[in-house]
Amino acid sequence: MITVDLNKIELAEFRAKEDEKQHCKATFPLLGAHGSKELASVYFELEPGDHLGSHTDSAEELLIVLEGQVAAQVGNEVIIAKKGGLVLVPKMVPHNIKNIGSGKVKVLGVFGGVNNIVATFNQELIPTGTNIVDTAMMS
To answer: What does the pLDDT average to over 115-136?
Structure first.
């Protein structure tokens, strides 16, 4: 059995080189490297006014808003989602999540049918120095 306690995970800080509001704390709690066979997950937190950054993912993603309120842009559509809201993001469709509330936002993303993900952001990320996050490179 594989379990993860989101209240006890360590988060890494990421920000865009060219956009100070593209800023999050994130981790990938379940991946192929952790033993999952058919899914992967990402967990991230955003402070008020911050956004994840426009990007595409190599697999379909279900975003679950655990806390706060977000503007979720998927392709050309924007919707407001709050705690308990679900947002489905098709594979390779550009999307972004922005914290539009006054408190911290917490979101869990679940990718189906794969255990490793490649996310390609429009902006280069610090501290990675690249715009690509490839979970196959994580342990």
So the answer is: 93
Topology classification of domain 27-137 = Jelly Rolls (2.60.120)
Domain ranges of the chain: 27-137
Residues in the chain: 139
Q: What does the pLDDT look like over 77-103, one tens digit per residue?
A: 999 999 999 999 999 999 999 999 999
Nearest CA among 100, 116, 98, 96 for reference residue 42: 116
- State the Cα angle at 16 between 112 and 19, rounded to 5°: 125
Q: Which one, of 34, 16, 7, lies nearest residue 136 by Cα?
A: 34
State if pTM tops 0.90: yes
- Name the burial class of residue 137, with classes exposed (0-12), middle (13-18) and buried (19+) by CB atoms within 10 angstroms of its CB: exposed
pLDDT digits (tens, 9 = 90+) for 53-79: 999 999 999 999 999 999 999 999 999
- Report which of 14, 75, 74, 73 is spatially closest to residue 46, judged by C-alpha positions: 14
